[in-house]
Structures are given as structure tokens and as C-alpha cells.
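Let's practice the habit of predicting before peeking. Look at the sequence and jot down your guess about where helices and strands might fall. Then scroll down.
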Amino acid sequence: MKLTFLGTGTSMGVPVAGGFGPKNETNDPRNHRYRCSAWIQTPERSIVIDTGPEFRLQTLRAGIGRIDVLLITHEHNDHLAGLDDLRSYNYAQKKPIPVYTSKQTEESIRHRFSYMFPPNKTPGSVDLDFKPFNGPVTEGDCEIIPLPVRHGKMEVMGFRINDISYITDVNKIPDETAEKIRGSKILVMSGLRWSPPHPTHYTIPEAVEVSKELNIANTYLIHMSPFVDHGQVSARLPDRVKLAFDQLEVSV
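Done guessing? Here is the structure:
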């Protein structure tokens, strides 16, 4: 089972348009981050999590030839804006793509992308097949478990796929969800910046503490702002917690 980080940046991407962010330029490619997305491969399934604004570019540089399942965390633009780029996979695979997400996110997608759905469906537009997701589901050799978390006042859907738990845009993990994460071999979780605290995201020290409480051996942080320098921050982290970067591949 292999996890590829397609993007690890915060909602504006890194570096940020318009000059926002640190003024010192860096040549470290790990500090250049597309919006968050991930690709999980098993012998029987190719699973994508989220379709952000750079999704087409992410699929090309990762070489994603097939998408069997799409998981969507929530309806914010940095996780959905590339949804239309799934058309080519529909054309090649000749069938709709199964989608697992919350009911709230499904409703938002149907509203914002109304041209993809009857009665307004445009011929040739993306075909999605929303599946019920109220508990664990099985897709081939993958068990997918919903992991609802809090992003301020908003609920965001995380996912446990076999031994990998993936959570983004989070500042609180309910106890019931925490129990479902325990035992994961890999935890992926957002860590926006070192400081100051943020109303809807864990800071990096907060994410480190969560990883410790859950006793996860390997945690990878994502959704990082331009103020996170990969080399400098990595040097401050415990061995069990690492900063992810675009195109990083890890295996279970």
C-alpha cells in the first residue's frame, strides 16, 4: 500500500500569489506546495483524496492513470476546485467515479457544479456516483472508515484506509474519531504553522501533541503555510513526526 502526497500546502498554496508570506526566497523544492491532495495505491484500488486547484498538474506529475475511488474531505475551494479535471478519467474508464464524502459536501458539490448533474447536466461533464457513507465501507482490498473532525464550527471528513488515517483542516478530533485512528501505522494531519494559534487549524506543536496522545509511530504533517520552512521546522520535530512534501511517497 503506497501513499503519494500530491499537494501539502495551505489554501492559498505556497508560495502565495501577490507576495504574501516570507520575503526570503528559498531554493528548497519542499517549500513549494500545491493544495492538499493524496493518492493511495493498493493492488486492487487507486484512490484519490480531494481535487484542489492544481489537480490536473498533480495527476500528470504523479502519473495517475486510473482513479477507482474519490474521497472528498469537505467543500472548501482548495479541496474541490479541480473536480472538472476528472472528466478525462470518465472518458478513459467509461463509467462514473464512486465518491465518498459527507452529505453536506455532496449537497454543496451538486449546487456549485450543477452542470454535472441532472436536470442541468452538460453532455461530457464529469460523472460522479455518490455512495452512502455512514460507516465503514469496502472497496476492493480497502476498508474505508469515516473520521469526522472539527474545522472550527465546520465538520470535515477524514478517512482511514486500512492502516493509513488522513485528516486535513482540523483543530479538534472528537474522542469517538480518535479511537478509530488509534492503531494506524501512518497518520496524516494538518499543521498550519508553528505559531501563533489558529481558530480552525492545529498548529504544528498541537499536531505533535495529538500524534503523541494517539501513539502513532509515523505522522506526516500537511496543509502548511508559507511560513513553514521545511528544513528549519523539521529540525525541531520529534522522530515520530515529519513534514510531508509534494511528491513524497511512503509505504505500509
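How did you do? The two ends are 5 Å apart (CA to CA).
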